[in-house]
Amino acid sequence: MIHSEVVCPFCGLLCDDLDVETRGPDVEVKANGCELSRRRFTEANVEWPGVKVGGRACSIDEATQRAGELLHAAAQPVMYGLATDLAGARAVLSLARRAGAIVDHANGAALQRNLSVTQHSGGFVTTLSEVRNRADLIVLMGTGSLARFPRLVERVFAPTQALVPERRAARECIAFGNDADIETHGASSWSVIACESAALGEVAMALRALVQSVELDAPRAGGIPMAQLRDVAERLAGAHYAVLVWSAAELEHEHAELSVEAFAELVRALNLNGRAASLPLGGTQGDVGMNQVCAWQSGWPLRVGFAQGVPDYDPHLNDVQRLVRDGEADCCLWLSSFAAEGQPPAGPAPLIALAHPGARFDVEPAVHIPVAIPGVDNAGLVQRSDGVVTLPLSRLREPRGPGAAKVLSSIEAALVRLDNGA
Amino acid sequence: MITRLKGATVYDPVHHADGEVRDLYMESGRMVEVAGESARIGRDVDLSGKVVMAGAIDMHTHIGGGKVNIARMMLPERGGALPGTQYTAPGCGGHAPATLTTGYRYAQMGYTACFEPALLPANARQAHMEMADTPIVDTGAYALLGNDDYLLGLLRDGADQQAVNDYVAWTLDATQCIGVKVVNPGGINAFKFNQRQLDVDEQGEHYGVRPRDIVRVLTRALHELGVPHPLHVHASNLGVPGNFESTLATMGAAEGRPVHLTHVQFHSYGAEGKRGFSSAAAQIAEAVNARSHVSVDVGQIMFGQTVTLSGDTMSQFRNRGLASPRKSVFMDIECDAGCGVVPFRYRDRNFVNALQWAIGLELFLSIDDPWRVFLTTDHPNGAPFTSYPHLIRLLMDRTFRNERLEAIHPGAAKHSHLGALDREYSLNEIAIMTRAGPARLLGLADRGHLGRGAVADITVYDPHADRERMFERPHSVYKDGELVVEHGELSAVTQGRTLAVKPDYDAGVERRLAAHFERYHTVRLANFKISQDEMVDHIGSEVVVQPCRDGVT
């Protein structure tokens, strides 16, 4: 059977025009899927492993009971990964409040790179349909992210039609990054300016000065000749709707939030006289949605903890990967339902793993419960990269196991019984 | 089993009870009538000496949606962390409260229904999820239209009224909303094209449509569709000195059809005096009094720290220099609308803020008909909703009000005629303004009153001369006949429902829209629409469809 207009949950773009065929228990992308979506849908056909406690096969009830015991005994439990749909996100927070856990996402560092700038000085952002229809200049600050959002060009930057056709006709793309990325995922019409990721911040600072007609003495900035930057600045200042695109996950250098701040400041300068906006790319592994649910239910975004009985937000201290590594957490619940790859954080704490059926572990978890893949095994909701649009996921086949929300609820019920002296 | 509430002092303006001492009866979540003693009375509650009203209804409060969440995320330093209790989860109070805390607080204040006034259609799922995660209170929302490229394209291309009506009705259905709001008509869209201001009779950049045209076609659409709630309008030129002219022009743009002007305090400014900022509350009140088709909510400001969050990107961006703390977030959104989040501190020693405070009160006290003026602070834009009891005291206690007037910037006090306004609101008028009136304006026939068939949403107050104290902490609250607040504390946490309307529309509009979505948007129409099943299964709040009036063709 062929399902049409299927939402693909495997990157932050949430393309929703896929045709996916189910044949018995197997799913396969038939149309409109990129190589990443085809790989993930095929990966969903992996054999379903059983539930295990300490490497030994057992029932789901035994496993959730054991997970409850581990959380009950812990003084500082943490919950990590959190790659799940919005129902899973609600269940994560309910359990976190009950267990007094700290919650953080596998993409927490990248989320914080953008969020710390918003928390410090704000910003001006836009969304996918706006860029698709209204932009006449797109500037990529880094090109490594293109591979992780394969249909970005087709669906956002270079669609066949736009609501403001003159903007689409005039649209130029300038990419600071490298040629190889553009060759595989970009468009031949783009201008590529070779630039290291760590130099992007300096480039943005120089552009910000140039668009405000500030004279710069230096012959280069970020390794790029000033004459070339002046040309880019002229196009930015003359654009009707300029969009600066980046992916915080790609900015791995130290204090990368300063680069993000430089991008935001460039956009701020452009909005003094014209119109411009930022498009930070994200939304993979359900990070945007998890962050939103956390903020609306608790009042604070991820890297909040409930050990004190009140929400305690600390984006520096509550870096869960570091807490686990340094032995400051004494129980870790890891949830990762979209992809088979990725490892839970390494450290001495006992691990409760709610994982994609294809997950493999370097160290056997104390509790291992395979969970349904959202958008394949269960219906639900996920949020897109731009943090505005929430899309519905379908159930494409009979699930072989429970979804994360159900498992987390069972664990919470076990914990409540233990708290009440059971 | 019938519960009898005995000897309550009832304020039910719909049934002309103005402090009448009587018994009330409820069964299975509804009010019933019982003649004489009945064997079916299973529970007796003694409410002698207590004041009883229907549950309060907040018809304009920003409780759900992306911009509310932006405020939460960008202001981590704001504090307000709260522990949980036996019944409640830990959360956050203050001016950007967590959704869970919001529900608890509203219920504790005797509110049983709250309406998000600015649901962005592309963001509808998130808005409804946040409202579903707002415990106890029933919720609903007004869908934003009038800055979306689709409608502006229809108007530019001379589409007929029927095309607009079908699109409006379809939007209400697809987004599960109860009304339609327009914010700075055409202005949010114009700002995307770098237009920095837009007067009521000025053409917007690119589409060339005037705010007046947008208000005209949308008021007409809702009227012809029979949607009870009139077009909810955040008028042009919010916050601009002299904007009272735009407000009057916006009233005129409705051409005599029902129209609701929201947070009208922000739209009642003159430009007189050496500071170029003055009160035009008298002119606005006079216009409201003379036009029975116009209703308003005030949007009162209170002194203190808050955060302004609004779909009006144009106005918010213009005012970004006033941000306190100095940071703000803006968004252009999905060919739909936009938003701006600007934290703000209102100071009583600041001339403008002090005069804004006075203007809001002038409006309350100068508008004669309590059925057409509603008590709001445009939470959190003017102040957090937890300030309503203080506001009620200001309206009911002239002495207290004049004392407060002495404490503000003296120049502002002089520029306001608030000191000369003697009026004190009665409990009956408060009941109209906070219950009966909102229910009527939203077309909620079974709420806002305590007559037979009404939902048993009941607030019980301990009367107190200090009206702030009285309204801050009701004695008890019933939601659908269940006791949720007892002795001022939450005793049960229930799940509210979503109230929506579904006027008829020609199914053909969906074919046209599907093509539009596929050609221009980044979401397919089939994935954009929210079904009632989805509301129950995934969003978490059941839809209760409210009837429309017979349409006018």
Fold and architecture overview:
The complex is a heterodimer of chains A (422) and B (553). Chain A has 422 residues and is α/β, with parallel strands linked by helices. Chain A contains 14 helices and 22 strands. In chain A, strands 5-4-20-19-18-6-7-16-17 form a 9-stranded mixed β-sheet. By secondary structure, chain B is α/β, with parallel strands linked by helices. Chain B contains 19 helices and 26 strands. In chain B, helix 5 crosses helix 7 and helix 7 packs across helix 8. The longest helix of chain B is centred in the middle third of the chain and has 16 residues. Classes of the chains: A alpha/beta (422), B alpha/beta (553). The interface between A and B is large, with 64 and 65 residues.
Describe this protein with a few key phrases.
heterodimer, A: 422 residues, alpha/beta, 9-stranded mixed β-sheet, B: 553 residues, 8-stranded parallel β-sheet, 19 helices, 33% helix
The coarse overall form of chain A would be globular
Radius of gyration of chain A: 23 Å
Write down the overall geometry of chain B. Answer: globular
Distance N to C terminus of chain B:
46 Å
Q: What's this model, at a glance?
A:
Chain A is α/β, with parallel strands linked by helices and 422 residues long. Chain A has helices at residues 35-43, 60-73, 86-99, 108-121, 128-134, 152-157, 165-170, 179-185, 200-211, 226-238, 256-270, 287-298, 320-325, 404-419; strands at 2-6, 18-23, 26-31, 52-53, 56-57, 77-83, 102-103, 122-126, 137-141, 172-177, 191-194, 220-221, 224-225, 242-247, 276-281, 304-305, 312-313, 331-336, 351-355, 367-370, 380-383, 390-393. Chain A has 14 helices and 22 strands.
What is this structure's SSE topology?
The complex is a heterodimer of chains A (422) and B (553).
Chain A: E1 2-6, E2 18-23, E3 26-31, H1 35-43, E4 52-53, E5 56-57, H2 60-73, E6 77-83, H3 86-99, E7 102-103, H4 108-121, E8 122-126, H5 128-134, E9 137-141, H6 152-157, H7 165-170, E10 172-177, H8 179-185, E11 191-194, H9 200-211, E12 220-221, E13 224-225, H10 226-238, E14 242-247, H11 256-270, E15 276-281, H12 287-298, E16 304-305, E17 312-313, H13 320-325, E18 331-336, E19 351-355, E20 367-370, E21 380-383, E22 390-393, H14 404-419
Parallel strand pairs in A: 6-7, 6-18, 9-10, 9-14, 10-11, 14-15, 18-19, 19-20
Antiparallel strand pairs in A: 1-2, 2-3, 4-5, 4-20, 7-16, 12-13, 16-17, 21-22
Helix pairs in contact in A: 2-14, 3-12, 3-14, 4-11, 9-10, 9-11
Chain B: E1 2-12, E2 17-27, E3 30-32, E4 41-46, E5 51-54, E6 56-58, H1 66-74, E7 81-82, E8 91-92, H2 99-108, E9 111-119, H3 124-132, E10 138-144, H4 149-156, H5 161-175, E11 179-183, H6 187-192, H7 211-225, E12 231-234, H8 244-253, E13 259-261, E14 269-270, E15 278-279, H9 281-290, E16 294-297, E17 304-310, H10 313-318, E18 328-333, E19 337-346, H11 351-366, E20 373-374, H12 388-396, H13 398-407, H14 410-414, H15 427-442, E21 458-461, H16 467-472, E22 476-479, E23 482-486, E24 489-490, E25 498-501, H17 508-520, H18 525-528, H19 532-539, E26 543-546
Parallel strand pairs in B: 1-4, 1-5, 6-9, 9-10, 10-11, 11-12, 12-13, 13-16, 16-20, 25-26
Antiparallel strand pairs in B: 1-2, 2-3, 5-21, 7-8, 14-15, 17-19, 18-19, 21-22, 22-23, 23-24
